[in-house]
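Example record

Each entry pairs one chain with its bound ligand, adenine.
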Amino acid sequence: MKPIERVVIIMAMKQEAQPLIEEYSFHKLPKIFDVELPMEAYHIDKEGIDITIILNGRDRDFQLDSVATQPATLAAFLAVQHFKPDLIINAGTAGGFAQRGSEIGDVYVSNRYIRYHDRRIPLPGFDKYGMGNYPCINASKLANVLDMKLANVSTGNSLDITPTDLAIINIETPVVKEMEAAAIAWIAHLYHIPFMAVKSITDLIDNDQAVEEEFIENLAIASNNLKKKMFSIIDYLVGKSIEEL
Ligand code: ADE
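Structure tokens for the complex follow.
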């Protein structure tokens, strides 16, 4: 049981990451990725653990944060190539379900596996391939000690939801819906690197408010709660092995 030495935290939106970067005084690493790529890296050494945040960075054409699965896959690949992490964490925001106990600002830890809800390929074998079902670590002790809820994480490339997406998401309970975790979990799975997602709730999918309004309204509170929990998680990792999480 080897203590964790290197952790990479992958985050999509600067606003989600900024409170954590500031509170822990992460310093920006000089351009380490190819100049064409938008990804940025921030680093701290926390009591012997090397911790790097990779931000997906700004899309050159749209001047917006690079969200969803395409940049997440690339960020995860860069994480593996440049930092050889013992653990990859995808931290960010998600939609929750009020009827399943979610409240705005709740922070969830991923449970069991990460699935896609919008890669529907109704061909033999490809139906399961589309869903992914990539593993994540069992972090139930961590969740218990740090008073965090566990949920299956479901990934898709849209902020809104279609009835078909909802039917697939509804197979799981509890569940949170977001836009990056499965892409990162796939890379972690390919390289046999333990993976977990930490997701803070900005919006409730089963209420009447438009998701885009609710997301913007609650992004600051969710990012602040995410920072607090990530702070506790980073403290908790010190001296522990993956098996102890
Ligand atoms: N991130 C925050 N809320 C989300 C939602 N409802 N769907 C996908 N990603 C999200």
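Residues 111 and 152 are 5 Å apart (CA to CA).
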